[in-house]
Model the fold of this input.
Amino acid sequence: TVGYFTKWGDGAYDFNPIADLTVPEIYEILRYLGAPAHIIEKAPSAGLYQGQTDEAELGVTYSDIAAYVRGGELSESMRRRIAGMEERTAHKRRMPRCYPD
Done:
């Protein structure tokens, strides 16, 4: 939704069975599968530098993003913030245009 991935990098795939899941939903599946707590509790990070976290970089939490995606309760300012991020990164979720020869 917010495009926090590298275009044609970690966002490139041929098959993505969890694409429509939110981060909290993925954590729920991990708990169900019995994943170790240290994996579930570790703050998501792109690993760009020591102490970096996705949520600090984004300025929103994954719970806020999940609420936005699922139509949950969210302040209007947060809704606008996430909508802006979604709009600015839409190009990352679209295939490139192809022109006929």
